[in-house]
From TrEMBL:
Reactions listed under catalytic activity: L-isoleucine + 2-oxoglutarate = (S)-3-methyl-2-oxopentanoate + L-glutamate; L-leucine + 2-oxoglutarate = 4-methyl-2-oxopentanoate + L-glutamate; L-valine + 2-oxoglutarate = 3-methyl-2-oxobutanoate + L-glutamate
Residues bearing the modification N6-(pyridoxal phosphate)lysine: K235
Enzyme class: transferase
Gene Ontology biological-process annotations: L-leucine biosynthetic process; L-valine biosynthetic process
Pfam short name (any one): Aminotran_4
Residues annotated as signal peptide: none
GO molecular function, one term: branched-chain-amino-acid transaminase activity
Coiled coil spans: none
Protein name, UniProt field: Branched-chain-amino-acid aminotransferase
PROSITE patterns: AA_TRANSFER_CLASS_4
CDD domains: BCAT_beta_family
Length: 405
């Protein structure tokens, strides 16, 4: 079998030298796919299902188990670019067993939601951010890129066609899973010559059907999720499978999530598949600080994280809060907790919006994250959930909300 040329063979010596000389995030050498021709939304073909599914009762929905009638798919080929977008009945993919996605992990994805507002209209939440992130992920694994707003328009068409699946109940939504895979049939390791972008949709219920339930975390120090120069800031399927065993280990000891640490300093990075926030009272000044890890390449650029930071700057800073994207460590959280200065901690992500944290198990100690007995959330996590949901469900008209119909 002829060995495929390694990805780096085409890179000139000067480019490689530049790669070595400049910081990681400033280099962009991964657009290995041929210059992508744009997706043409005007070529959309819609084939409606002849067997519409019966709707489940909202309270019977289990996350990610039920799918809508249709899916969106767009194929890409290195020589011809993006083909006509198709909305078809939801169906199996048929792929040769040698397809590169199965062997080398050419896969990236997004998680976003469509919400029904009180007037019955459908809204997406900051969908351009998801498309920008999908483009960054795709580019990093030599898959083609696309125009974000064109994809938002096409996703809107899918959501609109399947809008009957979105329950008319607060807390419910349609979870959308845009996915891109390399589809070339080859065992050679190279940039895929063909790819497919598809979007499937799954109606989901509220993450906390009976109100917040604070979670207890186990700090994972024997495995790392991401590292400098790695791909932890991209939403690649390959980042997720290795996280399950540490998650199971934490669960076996009674913890709902694991907390990913990094380095000898034990920097706090992310919680399960959420970004992590801590509200800490400063030891010297007494000022309240909302802190989260910086986007240094090891942290996923959460859209909820960005929303929490924006809202904190908008609404908490005028009340005297400091908002920081900085490195912080487990010893710092432990000390703050011991001194009664750890006010609260929470994870942030599309699934739950915010997830309050009660305790963190670390080095045989239990770090108390500030919730009183009987409390399931601190005031900042609660306010954040309310503020973000107001914009997701269109209670507050805001540029973050994208009206579908
Ligand atoms: C590793 C990781 N961190 C953080 C997040 C939160 O990101 P978002 O707020 O965009 O859902 C997710 C979920 O997508 C994730 O998988």
């Amino acid at each position: 079998m002829r060995q495929a040329a390694p990805l780096w063979r085409g890179l000139s010596a000067s480019l490689l030298a530049r790669r070595a000389a400049v910081p990681w995030q400033a280099t962009r050498l991964y657009s290995a796919a041929a210059a992508s021709q744009g997706v043409d939304a005007s070529k959309l073909v819609i084939q409606k299902t002849e067997k519409p599914a019966e709707l489940k009762k909202p309270e019977e929905l289990v996350f990610g188990n039920t799918f809508t009638d249709h899916m969106l798919a767009i194929e890409w080929d290195k020589s011809t670019g993006w083909g006509a977008p198709k909305i078809t009945p939801y169906q199996n993919l048929s792929l040769d067993p040698a397809t590169c996605v199965f062997h080398y992990g050419f896969e990236c994805f997004e998680g976003m939601k469509a919400y029904r507002d009180s007037a019955g209209r459908i809204r997406l939440f900051r969908p351009n951010k998801n498309m920008e992130r999908l483009n960054k992920s795709a580019e990093r694994i030599a898959l083609p890129t696309f125009d974000s707003s064109t994809l938002v328009d096409l996703i809107s068409k899918l959501v609109s066609l399947d809008s009957r699946f979105i329950p008319n109940k607060r807390g419910y939504s349609l979870y959308l899973r845009p996915t891109m895979i390399g589809t070339q049939k080859t065992l050679g390791i190279a940039a895929p010559g063909s790819a497919m972008l598809f979007v499937i949709a799954s109606p989901v219920g509220p993450y906390y059907p009976t109100g917040f339930k604070a979670v207890s975390l186990e700090a994972t120090d024997y495995a790392v999720r991401a590292w400098p120069g790695g791909v932890g800031d991209k939403k690649l399927g390959a980042n997720y499978a290795p996280c399950i065993v540490p998650q199971l280990a934490a669960a076996s000891r009674g913890f709902q999530q694991n907390l990913w640490l990094f380095g000898e300093e034990e920097f706090v990075t992310e919680v399960g598949t959420m970004n992590m926030f801590a509200a800490i009272k400063d030891k010297a000044t007494g000022q309240n600080e909302l802190v989260t890890a910086p986007l240094d390449g090891t942290i996923l650029e959460g859209i909820t994280r960005d929303s929490v930071l924006s809202l904190a700057r908008e609404k908490l800073v005028p009340e005297g809060w400091k908002v920081s994207e900085r490195k912080y460590t487990m010893p710092e959280l432990w000390e703050a907790s011991q001194e009664g200065r750890l006010l609260e901690a929470f994870g942030s992500g599309t699934a739950a919006v915010v997830s309050p944290v009660r305790t963190i198990s670390w080095k045989g100690k239990l770090v108390d994250c500030g919730l009183k007995d009987g409390e399931e959330t601190g005031p900042i996590a609660l306010k954040m959930k309310e503020w973000i949901e107001a914009r997701q469900y269109g209670d507050e008209e805001h540029e973050w909300s994208h009206l579908v119909e």
